[in-house]
Amino acid sequence: MTRAILEASAVTKSYAIGSRSIPVLRGVDLSIGEGEVVALLGASGAGKSTLLHVLGLLDPPSSGRVLFEGRPVHDLPIRERASLRHRQIGFVFQFYHLIPELNALENVKLGTMMDRGLLSWMKDRRELDERARDLLRTVGLTERHTHRPSELSGGERQRVAIARALIARPKVILADEPTGNLDSETAAGVLDLLFRINREEGVAFLMVTHDERLAERCDRLIRMKDGVVVS
Amino acid sequence: MIPAYSGFLALRYLRTRWVNILGTLGVAVAVWALIVVIAVFSGFIGEIRRSIRIATPDLLATGFDAEASFEELDALIRSDEDVIGTAPRLRHHGMYFPYGRLGQHLQQTRGMVTSPLAFDFVELVGIDPERERVATGFETWIENGAEHGFAPAMPDDPLEVPLALEEQWRREARQPGTPGPLLKASPGVLVSSRRARASQLDLGQQLSVVTARFVERGDDSDLVQVRRYFTISGCFETNHQILDETTALVGIDALREMLGQHPDDPFAIDLVSDVAIRVRPGVDPTAVATRVQATLAASQPGATVLTWEQQNRVFLGAVDQERGMMKLILFAVMLVAAFLIYSTLHMTVTQKTRDVGILTSMGAAPPGILRIFLLSGGVIGVTGALLGVATGLLSAHYLNDLNDWSRARLGVELFPTELYSLDRIPYEIEPGWVTQVAVSALVITLLAAWLPARRAARMDPVRALSHE
């Protein structure tokens, strides 16, 4: 196996509802290697999305550790976690999660504004603009760059979201049912795109999915049940 | 460093929500009102202070005991090197009846005096015109009086009446019981042009001036009425409305005589109730007042020396107080604007909850999220303040044109200039106040924006992402 990029070690996560504590993750161990595509399968409520949020440093684990390139990162200060998330980890969501006020190109460019001041961004804006357009072409969106999300189809929106996840050149992308909201034909196109990106850019993927056929195309398959990894 | 996305999204969120214009306009209206209304108030106060300044001597020494003689007081006061002029004053209450009117009036009203044309209570102020010219704004009072009423018969001594003038008036008036040719002219009296208009008084007209004084009668005292004819020798106007309404100026010797101090009497004292003092220009009057009071203390322990501001303390305090109240009331408008901004931004934050989650997943940290909404408030505040300052300065500058226009076209008087006997609406822009208003508008909008911004920054990104 290649060198591990993202690892979970004995990760638990519980949510407090009233006075009760509901365990969602009960000791998850898992590792994603460099350039690897891993499918995460499991029934609804198995804890897949929660695991994704914990691995993406959006949600701290109740116990256990999250390691990035072998370094524990779950207890870093909030700014450092944000910066790590920006530079190394991309997110793709089932419902695309684009900013409705921005057009396709601006949604992608937003990814270049996270760690720059307005002046430094303005200075490099031609270069950044060109890179965003390139990425949109890479994901197959050759036109409609100035259309708002509401004017784009589901497949197009997901392509914009993928371009946005790629713009900071992350090492790993966490995708939460990226094709869950698309018809099978569009879904196949988006998946082809994801696998192509994996081959060409060497980006690792952890993909939450219900789709067994998609899972078979992945390098590795992880099944979850009731907050633990079963296979 | 403010991350680029904070500014970018702040502007975009503002641009796509027209409701923010309301907040901006709210701030602009508050700033505009605070600038214009206070500019007019300050202009008005400035006008009042200028009139008071002309009507009131630099310093006024008062509170002397009954035996005080001007000669002694004058020597003491003038011993201060910063005193460049003094004028004696004698105040006494009295009333006057325009010659001949009272008789007619009483016949019509069966003994009741009801018409202001028939008589008036006044404060008789005995002055020495020569010395008043040096020590106070007397010259200006006479000039103003000539402009709004009539000029004095003898410009050199406004209190002097030529015999011919008095005789002419008597002939023209043809009053029943008019005395024959005169041996000696009556002493002069100066009435305010305001009073002259209201009571229909004219140059050369005779006034019967009445006052009363106490005389010793064994162990007891008695009140004795003193009455004397005066001739109106001119009019004055200090622009200090209350002073003008209630004062008649007479020669100090004539008044002394009425009060029993005949100038030819070797035992008479040059009675004085106040001394008006002029201070060398550029010298702080307060310091001189303190020194002069200390000098007087030995012989006149009850005497006080008041600066021109202290002499009008109550009046000046009242208008200042009004301006302060106005500021407070108008700041309430600003608070309303702040609530408007708070609620629109609060709404925006609620609508943009999922964006907060998305941005966090892209690598945004809470301080950057906070700044999106804080900057939104800042942009509203700066735009509103600039708009308010610009319209405020413009409308203050063109206030008189606006007033003329609205009077001519709409029949509405924005500012009743006549009520304050002013020709134009006075205004005074104080740069300090404009800055203060603009800065507080900005601070208040930032405070209003800070609460929703903090709510956004404290959001749990995972919950925010699933927000519908």
> In angstroms, what is the radius of gyration of chain A?
18 Å
Shape of chain A: globular
Alpha-beta classification of chain B: alpha+beta
Basic shape of chain B: elongated
Proportion of helical residues of chain B: 40-55%
Whole-number tally of structural domains of chain B: 2
By DSSP, the count of extended strands of chain B is 9
Oligomerization state: heterodimer
Largest interface (CB within 8 Å) is between: A-B, 32 and 28 residues
| H/E series of chain B | HHEHEHEHHHEHEEHEHEHEHHHHHHH
Order of helices and strands of chain A: EEEHEEHEHHHHEHEHEE
Radius of gyration of chain B: 33 Å
Could you give the distance between the termini of chain B? 32 Å
**N-to-C CA distance of chain A:** 17 Å
Per DSSP, the total helix count of chain B is 18
Beta fraction of chain B: 15-25%
Strand order of the largest sheet of chain A: 6-7-8-3-9-10
- Please summarize the sheet with the most strands of chain A: 6 strands, mixed
Low-confidence region ranges of chain A: none
Instruction: Round the mean pLDDT of chain B to the nearest integer and report it.
Output: 88
Specify the biggest β-sheet of chain B.
Answer: 6 strands, mixed, barrel
